[in-house]
Amino acid sequence: MTAPHPDAPVIGLDLGGTKIAAALVGTDGTVLARHTLPTPATEGAEVVLDALAIAARAVRVHGTTAIGVAAAGVIDPVTGTVTSATDTIRGWTGTALAAGLATRTSLPVACDNDVRAAAATELDGPDDDRTLLYAAVGTGVGGAVAAAGRMLHGVAGIAGHLGHLPSPEADGLPCTCGATGHLEAVAAGPAITAHCARLGGQPADRLQTVAERAARGDPHATTAIKLGARATGRVLGGLANALGPDRVVVAGGVPRIGALYWDALCAAFTAELMPPLRDLRPCPPRGGADAAVLGAAALPRTLPLHQPPTTGATS
After folding, report:
1. Rounded to whole angstroms, what are the CA distances from 192 to 41, 177, 206, 286?
2. 3-state class of 80 per DSSP?
3. Which of 154, 222, 231, 290 could bond to 159 as cystine, CB 3.0-4.6 Å?
């Protein structure tokens, strides 16, 4: 079941590890109201669901018909559950996200992974039949794939989690998922920061500090940034050979640290490409800061709606 009143406003919620962003979105994609609040990530899933409901109420108006949630973790939109997650949000794995929020708000809810929701805004509507490869490199490494204009979800919503592809550069390093040697272990912002210290650099509290040191010529910072960028570029290049995308988008806070990172990523990406893809290059996202909430607000039009229990309906 999809949104029953396509001309009515919809609430989009973007749930991250540090903040919840809410927006009331009109049918033309205009953001009509906004609200943000901190994510109570250490207080458990039920408290996070309560916070999502508070954020939704802050922007809700009479006539609002549905909520779309773009959330961190592996999200299965069919069951409305979090099938897997790191400990960024305590106890998040197994959470009945859609049902829990529908019960708290008395509105139908559609949900998906946050990166996949943001990636959907890179497509030019339902008639866009291109193949898109989308990476988001920040605190973690997420991704999404669209084929023939449709976002791929895969079993339990796992499709697109490219941060957990094997990476030679990360060999032996522990990943947030519990395995070792995955891309996220060397390419995410905290991973680059930690690797700089492992190389002998001064410990840093955040990636921006490492980037500032690299700009001043610090060899440890420069090497750590280039390694993370090269690992990401190689994985994306290999995926491009497998998928034949029309467009490759690299989003997130890490690519914004500057040319040192971006140039190394692009060079590694290009070196992996087979001849038919020689002109393909990564590009930054078109969407701005609202990409995730706008993508979330679009979910009730395309994914299953999970109804509140008071309606007597099923999801």
Report:
1. 23, 17, 9, 25
2. coil
3. 154
Whether residue 240 contacts residue 274, with contact meaning beta carbons closer than 8 Å, is answered with: no
**194: which 2 tokens?**
């930690």
Segment holding 270, helix H or strand E: helix 259-272
Q: Running DSSP on this structure, what letter comes out for residue 278?
A: T
For the chain, counts of helices (H) and of strands (E): 9, 12
Three-state SS for 20-65 is EEEEEECCCCCEEEEEEEECCCCCCHHHHHHHHHHHHHHHCCCCCC
Tell me which H or E stretch contains 146: strand 141-147
Quick one: pLDDT band at residue 191, thresholds 50, 70, 90? very high
| pLDDT tens-digit series, residues 2-45 | 445 667 899 999 998 889 999 999 988 899 999 999 999 999 99
Cα–Cα distances (Å) from 47 to 100, 104, 254, in that order, read 11, 12, 29
Q: CA 174, CA 94: separation in Å to the nearest integer?
A: 23
- Which of 40, 63, 35 has the alpha carbon at shortest distance from 50? 40
Whole-model pTM: value is 0.86
Round to whole Å and give the CA distance between 297 and 100.
18
